[in-house]
Design goal:
50% helix, four-stranded antiparallel beta sheet, alpha+beta
């Protein structure tokens, strides 16, 4: 398991020395890998506006994390595959998620840097909110078809009382004439002998020796019996008294159910394909928006924490989760001069969302990204 830390430190002499010490330490001890996280020059605006934007970005981060989680869950459900298989198809701008994060480049065409920070936040907010709304609609459509198909399959593949009998009963098993009809009766295994001895007595209009066992499973058997149509009601009542269940059966009705299931199955397959394609495209879009959002938060927090003129460096640290604690301790030691009173005990955002994490307060700017979602190799 991997931890990703997105940190920001000012470019003062002491901090730069600490960064060099950090790079030397992690290279020597293999504690982590380190790369620059490129964030372009953005419009700062006035301080009051910056504080407002910071609050908006925090809320938007929570919303975006939620949408990513929902999309990821939907991908697992509709692709009906393991997490690893889903992750192989979860891409951002055509590359795997970890590569996108570690080689992040700001998309100026999509998020123009000349715009105010609030406008950039609005663009991401509208994008993510629209995806969330469309996700709900598409998921509801797909789940409606899926539920209908599952319900029908349950009926057709359930117990002898409800399952389809089309693969059991042949037309030649049924006698249908002006006066005669054939009923299908469910008999439990323990009642076979009772059935054989008594079925002819359930009505005086039962055709003698007309019963045949057509099918059986662990539950019991399906028996046919032929009688005069005028005695059907009497026979059903007597059969019920003897704990025998008469199944309502019609070739036309069974064929209609099978046709309905076939149509639903085709519809589900079509909806699945449409939904999967939409998820792949829009998962990429929302993930890209999320990383840009993280970059925005790093920029805003760096300006608020370190002041103007804008002068900071963002780094992405990747470490094994077992070594994460040691890395945190090293970072706290190297950058304690930025805020000696800082502790890692204050938690701002906490989440168990795969691929998403929590922001904690340190002497330096730090966003912790839980990378479960990113680990595809």
């Amino acid at each position: 398991m991997t931890d990703l830390l997105l940190i920001s430190v000012p470019l003062d002499k002491t901090s730069l020395t600490s960064v060099e010490k950090l790079k030397h330490t992690i290279a020597k001890t293999n504690l982590a890998s380190c790369c620059k996280f490129s964030i372009p020059e953005l419009k700062v605006g006035i301080l009051d506006s910056l504080l407002s934007v910071s609050d908006d970005l925090s809320k938007l981060d929570t919303l975006t994390e939620s949408v990513i989680k929902k999309m990821y869950q939907c991908m697992r459900e509709v692709m009906e595959q393991s997490s690893d298989k889903v992750l192989e198809k979860a891409l951002a701008n055509g590359v795997d998620l970890m590569s996108y994060v570690t080689k992040f480049q700001w998309d100026k065409a999509k998020y123009p840097t000349a715009l105010p920070l609030s406008s950039l936040a609005d663009i991401i907010n509208k994008e993510v909110s629209q995806m969330e709304t469309e996700l709900k609609s598409r998921a509801a459509t797909y789940n409606s078809v899926k539920t209908s198909l599952q319900s029908l399959e349950h009926k057709l593949q359930g117990t002898l009382q409800t399952r389809s009998l089309n693969d059991i009963v042949r037309k030649e098993d049924l006698v249908v004439s002006e006066y005669l009809t054939t009923l299908l009766v469910i008999v439990t295994r323990g009642s076979y002998l009772q059935w054989e001895r008594t079925y002819e007595t359930l009505s005086q209009f039962v055709v003698p020796r007309s019963s045949r066992k057509l099918y059986e499973d662990g539950e019991g058997g399906v028996f046919s019996v032929t009688l005069f149509k005028r005695a059907v009601c009497e026979f059903k009542a007597k059969a019920q008294e003897s704990k025998f269940t008469v199944r309502e059966y019609s070739f036309d009705l069974e064929e209609k159910r099978h046709q309905e299931m076939k149509e639903l199955s085709v519809n589900k397959k079509e909806q699945n394909g449409i939904f999967v394609r939409w998820l792949k495209v829009n998962f990429s879009e929302v993930f890209v928006a999320w990383i840009h959002l993280k970059a925005l938060r790093v920029f805003v927090e760096s300006v608020l924490r370190y002041g103007l003129p804008v002068n900071y460096q963002a780094l992405l640290l990747q470490t094994d989760r077992k070594r994460s604690k040691k890395l945190r301790e090293k970072l706290s030691s190297l950058f304690m001069h930025l805020d000696p009173t800082a502790t890692a005990s204050k938690t701002d955002v906490s989440s168990d969302i795969p691929g998403l994490g929590q922001q904690e307060y340190f002497s330096y700017i730090c966003f912790h990204v839980n990378t479960n979602l990113l680990e595809i190799s």
